[in-house]
Amino acid sequence: MKKLAAVLLALLTALSVFALAEGDDGGEGVIHFPDAAQADSFVSDGDPADVDPYIPETLEKGIIGKDDRVTVKKPKQYPYSAIALLETKYECGCGYFGATGFMVTEDTLLTAAHCIVCTQHGKWAKKITFYFGYKSKKNSLYKYKPKWQAWVGTTFPGGTYSSEDDWAIINLNRKIGDKTGWFGMRWCSNDELMGHSFCMAGFGGEPKLSYAWGEITNVWDKQIGFNNDTLPGNSGSPIFDDGYYAVGIATSGSDTENYGQRLRDDIRQVMVKNGLL
Known about the structure:
By secondary structure, the chain is mainly beta. It has one domain (17-33, 65-273): Thrombin, subunit H (Beta Barrel), CATH 2.40.10. Helix content is 8%, strand content 35%.
């Protein structure tokens, strides 16, 4: 397993943090951290079946074409409606506006673990507001701020914010996927990933929802490398095929290659064990 110390994308990179104004706080949450016993218990029970995407009848499909990074003009269309912009307040009082997450069931989304931790102070998220179909704070398809709970793949021991097990599963308190839709999930073999084209869409930049197509350039047990264009804010973005099946979670990048968590059986097992799948 290759351990990557590449630059985190959500990056709290420039590590731009802020104090949230009164009234901007999202819903409070609980985070479940891994331990050695838990990790050992998540063993494969065979070849997992794909989880199908869901597109509400009320939503149009967005048109996706192969191109460099493209701004999404209709973020309330599927699959973009299933992509969330996260506004987070941490236990230290800092906050971040601009990371990405995406729905994978009627009430659960995936993101990068470092999207819900303050990398300046090592403090985890206390409150999060989720904006779906985001154009502005006053113009979104759906805004969610009640309670939530999350399971993360790492505690970033020693304050080392590497890409190792940089994933988070967040369960919301409502079945908002019935309104936003959700991505399918596919647990692909190495051959099904390597050299194939996938799309990545998320809130890189202003924040502004955009997408880019690229190819998987490297495959490891837990991670994938890809050449899609990325920007800070893309952490937590879905990496998905033209059938709207997610195969990975964007997490980090370097000058030569970008990286993500590969959707794999240990992540699925956490979802199964906690009744999320």
